[in-house]
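Record 1 of the preview.
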Amino acid sequence: MGMCGLAMAALFHGGWARAAAPAGNNATALLAQADAVKTTDRPRFLQLLQQLHRPDTVLSPDERWRLRYLDGWEGSFTGDYATAEPLLRDVADHAPDTDLQSLAAGTLLNILAISHHYEEAFERADQLTANIPRIRDRRVAYKALSQLSQLMASAGQSEPARSYALEMMQYAEPGQSMCRPYVYLFGAKVADDTLPPTDPIFHQAVDACTAAKEPMFADTVQLDLARRLAETGDPKAALALLKRIEPTVNAQGFQVHVYVLRSTFGYAYWVSGHAAEAKHWAQAALAMDPKGNFDGLSEHVYRVLYEVARKAGDYRTALDYYRHYRDVKARSVSDAQAMALAYHTVQQQLSLHKLQLEELSKHNGMLELQQALDRKEMEASRLYLMLLLTVLLSVAFWLVRTKRSQLRFQKLARSDGLTGILNHQHFVSEAWSALRHAEKTSRDACLALIDLDHFKQINDTYGHATGDAVLVRTVKLCLAHLRPIDVFGRLGGEEFGLVLPDCSVEQGVEILDRIRLALADLAIDESHPDLGISASFGVASTGASGYELSKLMADADAALYRAKRGGRNRVETVTEPG
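->
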C-alpha cells in the first residue's frame, strides 16, 4: 500500500476514549468527545479543538498533553507534518502517561517514514514494541500493533508485518470487527507488490470494513485493487470500481486517497485507450500537489501525461514529463533501498546491543563464580579471570570491526571512489533535498555543471594515472572554495555537479570564477610542470529556472555547452526564465 497505507495507519491511530462523551465546559469530556469523533465527524472535531483552545478553558497538565496529541493528529491528517512532528515527538518523549506516549509514537512513526527518516522510524518502532506490555488500555496496544505492521509492510518485511497483524486479533475486544487486522494482513501480503487482484484478502478486508462502517480502510484496499486490475489488463473493471468508490473517497476528504483515486483513474483510462480522460485525471491529481508532498505516489501520473503528450506529438512536453517520471521512479527505488537498509541497520544495532547485554550477563555470572572460587583456590580464580578477559576482548574486537565495516559500507555507498565526494546517485538525492529546502524557505540557489577542458587529451598524453591526479587535485581545490552546506558531487568522468544553497546567480558566478582562476595556477606534480588545466562552467539559478532539479540540470547543461562553444575556460549562466 506504500505511502497511502502509511498515511492511513497514522490517521487511524486513535485515542483513549471508548465513546463520545457529552459536550460541555468540562475539559475531560471535551477531549474525550474530540477523540471519539475525529475520524467520523470532522466539523465537530474542529469545533471541539477550537473550544479547547479558548482562553477560558481550564486544562490540567495531563489534559494539556492530550490536547497536544490531538493537535499533532490534526496536523498529520491535513499533511502538515512540519507542525505535527514536533508536537507528536514532544508527547511521545515526555508525556507522563504511557498509553498517550504510545498513541503519539505510533502517529509519529508513520510521519517519519513518509518523510524518509527511516532509521529513526525503525528505532522508534523497536521502542514502541518494547512498550506494548506496559500499555494499560488494550485498544491502544491494538492500534500500536497496526502501526508496526504497516511500517514493516512498507519496508518489505512481510513476515513481521503479518505477525503484528495477527497479534492485533489477540488484542481485539469481544465482538470487535476484524476490519483493521484484515487490512494489515492485506498490507503484509502486498509487501512484495506481487499480490494478484483475485486474492480473497481483497474482498475479506473490504467486506469486513464495510460492515464495520470504516469506509477509509475499505477505500485503501479498493484503491489498491483498482490499480492492480488496471496493471494486470482489466482496466474496465478498474474503472467500474473507481466510479463506485469515488463518492465515498471525495466525501471523506482524505487527500492521499483523493490523489490516488485521480491518478488511478488517469492510468486506467490510458490503458483503456481514452487519452483525453486519462490526461484530465492525471492533471487533476497533479494540481492537488504543488509542493510535491505526494511525490511517492506520482509515478502513474507522470507516466500517463508523458504517454499522452508523446502520442499527441508534443515531444517537448513529453520529454519534460518523462524526466519527472524517471526521477520519481528513481527516487522510489532509492527510497525502497534506503528503507530496507535502515531496517537492517537498526536490526543489526539491536542485535549488537543484545549481544552486549548477553555478554554483560555472562560477565556478571562469571564474577559470581569467581567470588566462590576465590575462597577455595586462587590459581583457579586467576584462570577464570583470564578466560573472561579473553572473551570480552574478542567481543570488543568483533564490535569494532563490525562498526568499521558499517561505516565503510555507508561511505562507499555514498562516495565517489576516486575523489571522495558524492557519487552521481547521492549527488542527485542531496541536490533534490537542498532544492526542496530552498523552495520551502523561498531562498535562492544555484546549480552548476563543471567540465574539465581537454581532459581526454590529458589522459592520452600523460596517462590515466596523471588524469586521476588531475581529478583529485581539482576536487581538493574546489572544496577549498566551497561552504559546508554546498552539495558537490562527481557526475562521471571529468564532469562535476555543484548546488549552492542560499546563493544568488551573481554570487554563484563569483564563486565559480574564483575556482576557474585558481585552476589556472594549479600544479599537478613536479614531473609535469608544463601541464596546465582549465574548466568550463554552466550555471543555472532558481530565480531563472525554478526549483525543479531536472530543469536546473538542463539549463546548466545548456550554459556549459555555450561555455565550451565560446572557447572554454569560462563561466556561462542562464539569466532568462525558460
